[in-house]
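Rather than argue in generalities, we reproduce a single protein record, letters for residues, whole numbers for local backbone shapes, just as it appears below:
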Amino acid sequence: MTDTPETVPTLRKWLIAARPWSWPASTMPVIFGTSMAVVFGGARLDPLRFLIALAAMMIMHSAANMLSDAFDFKRGLDKDVTPVSGAVVRGWLSPGAASRGAAAFFAVGIVLGLVLTLVTGPTLLIIGGVGVVIGVFYTGLKFRALGDLAVFLDFGILGALGAWVVQTRTFSWIPVVWTVPISMLVVAILHANNWRDSISDTELRIRTVASLLGDKGAEAYYAFLLFGATAFVLAFILVPRLIGGGLPALPWTFAIVLAALPRALALWGRARRRRAPRQPLDFVILDGATAQYNLMFGLLSTAAVWLQAILKLG
């Protein structure tokens, strides 16, 4: 039996609209940034502030998802239902309802951010303000080939930096630099999506990095994002130790991310076999598979932080 707007429970409609399966991409930097704040920033973990920050990030991410779904549907970009589609393309919510829901979610997220600002200081207000602006205007940025930069900042750098500030009340370049690998993999998720849709995007005169690069260029870019994350981790471990200069070196425990390399190779194989996939949906759901890899990589990175706290390696 096909689900219709009348048969689908209201709660399920909005849950699908929020797309909770996308939350690991935005919450992982918060978890990682909080862990760094405690282990490297000398902060005493405040569980309540951490949970508020985590909730704010999930709510803001869902708001951006709803707004993007509504805009994409109006532009005729989202027509086919996939396993990770939102409620608008499924016909469960109108674009207007999704937009109003997004506005409500943004409002709640902003309130939570202001609550945290009151207890942490104005630095968080600046970080959060930039994040909100990017989230609200994300759809417009996405179609001007700036979506990759937007998610790199919002669901990577700013998420980790904000989490650091929430716990330490101070700014530091450590979460900015050390979150680059995770941020690259968040971009890889978006790029896999845009790569799949690049032909239709080009026909509709929508500019994404994938459509601008062309198929072969998009393949090379995906490889850079996928393997570059590991390469940057190794560089952050080795380069400061080789050249000195006061650069903070990533702890040796971060070599644990090499355990995820076989998964990266499997994803690369799926990408290269896009014209003759082993399974029909291998390339169609490459973005979802990349998201799973991002979660694995983020969890390993977070484990590396806490292993350093335990082992205290040089």
